[in-house]
Amino acid sequence: MADTIAKASAILGDRIGCLRVLCAAIRMTDDGYTVALEIRWRGGGFGDFEISATGTTLAECIDQLNNPQVIVGAVLRHKDLESEIFEMQMNAPEEVDEA
Fold first, then answer.
1. The model's pTM
2. Contacts of 77 (CB under 8 A, 6+ apart)
3. DSSP state of 46
4. Can you tell me whether residue 31 is helix, strand or coil?
5. CB 72, CB 80: distance < 8 Å
6. What is the pLDDT of residues 22-76, one digit of tens each?
7. Span 2-90: which CATH code?
8. Where are the domains of the chain?
9. How many C-alpha atoms does 62 have within 13 Å on its Cβ side?
10. Alpha helices in 1-99 (DSSP H)
11. How far apart are CA 14 and CA 1, in angstroms?
12. How many Å apart are CA 8 and CA 37, to the nearest integer?
């Protein structure tokens, strides 16, 4: 996975502050496995998120996550979502304290 993360970081370039896997979990399900990675794409904990893959075999899950484009896509989707949330917070009307 380290090679995949390094390739994804190279693809993303300066758009992120860092990219590393904080932890990984393997869960057995009735149908097979789920592999989840907690990823940090920016320093300070802001930007942590989880990406997961599900498959009938553990190798199938790892193959899905071993594609740098999958990691890049997940980071960019998360970054866009954070930007939308920030914009909504900035545009929200201020509460007036009537005390």
1. 0.70
2. none
3. T
4. coil
5. no
6. 888 999 989 899 999 988 876 655 667 888 999 999 999 999 999 989 988 888 8
7. 3.30.160
8. 2-90
9. 8
10. 2-12, 58-65, 68-91
11. 21
12. 14
